[in-house]
């Protein structure tokens, strides 16, 4: 669940510091790697990327070397390929025109795409990242224009071709040397993205534009008029302004429910739904369920305790509804990041202990109701329930704002293995037993959906595949699930990452200057070649089309 970002300033001032600031605000979406690429005078790209957190990698010295008024940024949580430095984003291809690319999401037909790029497009793919495939498909589609200079129509057509050939989830930002930035979102809108603008401080009447995974970036950097990119829509931003186009017919919008449950920041608004309000509603709905279950079991709760950070909003609401005191019984070490998105079970387990400390005075001799947003592998709940007992709790009741997660995620959350999911093949009582609780109370799926849907009547469907096993894009077969399980289960990843194989071309983390010396994409309107009448048919890949019509 990476974070993507792109900014184009009306002026030629360096945009890198703002990109780094924006990425800090998206850090919760990916802690493994990050990067920024800017485009300076003469269409030259400047990049700084690699493994690590934004504040460590993008320091003042690195930022001072990233020149130019437009750029793309990325914060990575790997869901395909490995955690290798070479898979840090944004990615770059020099041909055609010089393209830089950042992707949030996960593709589900990568084998087909890899085959096509190898056998038909003759493009060398240097990593096992699905995002590198996506970039090369885009580059291939642009290459087919055969033009010296491209224009907006060419980009829209290329994006359309990409949408017709890929399956899965993607929200992407990109940049073409000397031309501008652009972005697009998959036809179901599974991953979030929007754009915003602000008046330029230095160019009279000019606008600065940005695109980002979450609206929180827009608030913090002083941008306004946040607008969600529609499913299947692309937007292009140049110094001439912003244009949008629906590239393929909009499918039913089905944003990923897990964004609201866990991933997104509460102060973001995704597809018109305040994440904060949706989490409050989750707490309200869970309170009703909890009231009934506790009454049925004859349990009187003394205190409600959240698992910091994400569950706080819902837990407070739940406590108020139950009329039970809310107490911060677990203190979080602010220097430890999110544990769920850390690679490897041992690391995750150790970090729960490093991150959370139980205060005995809130647990001793009490019946505690601990609230978390979700129970996925059960790593957090197992540890904190033990901590609560060690701190003297008489009874420990666990409550989850999400229903049991029994199915693998394929659209950008790294939980591809059923075996790793605590709820897979277990009843609610068995889950409770496994995590060591006296009772575990789950949200129902209808209540969860209603907690979000009530805030935007236009969205009635969410991607709830991890709860239901129904995948909105289709094409996610048993065979595919077994395949990704083999590739990405914790033990398999250790093997892939453990070899420390270096790719042929390793990217430089700092001060890496790439790109040509000339303005490649556009800028000079007189160089824009007129639209050709070639039909999309010529670009069609019959064996790869995944179900979108060519209209
Ligand atoms: O059952 P598990 O596999 O442990 O996963 C679920 C837990 O992981 C997440 O916390 P995380 O520490 O990542 O982030 P947070 O600080 O935002 O709550 C989530 O909020 C749950 O607490
Ligand atoms: N979490 C994401 O969005 C990951 C993007 C891409 N699949 C990668 O692994 O780099
Ligand atoms: Mg948590």
Note down, in words, how this protein is organized.
The protein has helices spanning 16-25, 54-57, 60-64, 110-119, 130-143, 152-165, 216-220, 257-263, 275-297, 312-322, 345-355, 360-363, 379-390, 428-435, 445-453, 465-468, 478-488, 490-498; strands at 3-8, 33-39, 45-51, 70-76, 91-93, 99-107, 168-176, 180-185, 194-199, 207-212, 224-228, 233-238, 241-246, 269-270, 273-274, 303-306, 330-332, 356-358, 367-372, 395-400, 439-442, 512-514. The longest helix is centred in the middle third of the chain and has 23 residues, at 275-297. An eight-stranded antiparallel β-sheet has the order 11-9-10-1-4-2-3-22. The two termini are 31 Å apart. The chain folds into two domains: 3-254 and 506-538, Glutamine Phosphoribosylpyrophosphate, subunit 1, domain 1, CATH 3.60.20.10; 272-471, Rossmann fold (3-Layer(aba) Sandwich), CATH 3.40.50.2020. It is α+β, with helices and mostly antiparallel strands and 551 residues long. Helix content is 31%, strand content 21%. A hairpin with a 2-residue loop joins strand 12 and strand 13 (241-246). The structure holds 1-O-pyrophosphono-5-O-phosphono-alpha-D-ribofuranose (PRP), glutamine (GLN) and magnesium ion (MG). Residues 307, 310, 372, 380 line the site of magnesium ion.
Task: Give a topology summary.
Blueprint: E1 3-8, H1 16-25, E2 33-39, E3 45-51, H2 54-57, H3 60-64, E4 70-76, E5 91-93, E6 99-107, H4 110-119, H5 130-143, H6 152-165, E7 168-176, E8 180-185, E9 194-199, E10 207-212, H7 216-220, E11 224-228, E12 233-238, E13 241-246, H8 257-263, E14 269-270, E15 273-274, H9 275-297, E16 303-306, H10 312-322, E17 330-332, H11 345-355, E18 356-358, H12 360-363, E19 367-372, H13 379-390, E20 395-400, H14 428-435, E21 439-442, H15 445-453, H16 465-468, H17 478-488, H18 490-498, E22 512-514
Parallel strand pairs: 16-19, 19-20, 20-21
Antiparallel strand pairs: 1-4, 1-10, 2-3, 2-4, 3-22, 5-6, 6-7, 7-8, 8-12, 9-10, 9-11, 12-13, 14-15, 17-18
Bound molecules: 1-O-pyrophosphono-5-O-phosphono-alpha-D-ribofuranose (PRP), glutamine and magnesium ion.
